[in-house]
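The following block was generated as part of the benchmark described in Methods. Ligand: succinic acid.
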Amino acid sequence: MHISQTLKTVEFPSFIFNASGPRCTTQGELLKIAGSSAGGITMKSCSPEARQWNPEPRYIEVDMWSINSMGLPNHGYKKYLEYAAEIKKQFPNKPIIASIVWFCPEDFFLLIKAFQEDKNVDVLEVNLSCPNVVGKPQIAYDFETTDELLQQIFALGITKPIGFKLPPYFDPVHTEMMANILKKYPVDFITCINSVGNTLIIDPETEQPLIAPKWGLGGLWGDYVKPVALANVRMFYKMIWDKTKIIWCGWIKNGIDVFEHLLAGASLVQLGTVFGKEDTDCFERIESEFIEYASSKGYSDISEIIWNLKEL
Ligand code: SIN
């Protein structure tokens, strides 16, 4: 089975790798991903200065769902430039994705430039969708600001593959509004979706929310989020397939989930919750489950599956 993929000129030996989420904050964690069968290494979304975790409890997971409010903990972008240098030294053939978060324009452009100029980072992912910072909106729900931001980013003369991590949209009209903005710029990929933001789960026994930050509100993943992710991938692919690849980031438990997202239009796949739970073994397990399932259906290349969903 042919499972390699490209983003612009950057080659991924496998289309499955990690999401900016669990287990990608420290240099040790990143080197472990690089040494596994993951096709690339996404570093934790970073800000100009280091950030601490939100207060505990901030993450609860059961079989069918998880809720989180981590708060974008990271070591600050300078550390991720150092980590990228060490990863590249040891694993020169694995692409490194820097995930950059927007807090205020000046800081943000400083980070974009730093990763654009760095010789070790291969791909830029701009996170416009974190729901877990008190007082900061999910930028990609504000269409006008997103449009202005993209205009300013591309005015910097970006040459590396660049993409934007988006929140879920729940109405095709909104998906289309965002697609129309993306189409105006040379966007290489979008990562969709981030968690369903600002949800509340209550424990009736204790009469409290399950997590502490932000009045109990957090990002939801789960079995019922997967159809939302599939719909976003399908709608975006339909609108921007000719210019922009889609990285699916969602609730992935097995290789058949991956198969379904390729059918909906995803070209690459990021693992989050399952990676947090199983550590790097999940990359090999999910890849081999996917290959077994796709081969049993007669496919020999992921390009034959992408957007091959049959109409009813
Ligand atoms: C977090 O660190 O709170 C999650 C990151 C995200 O949702 O982008």
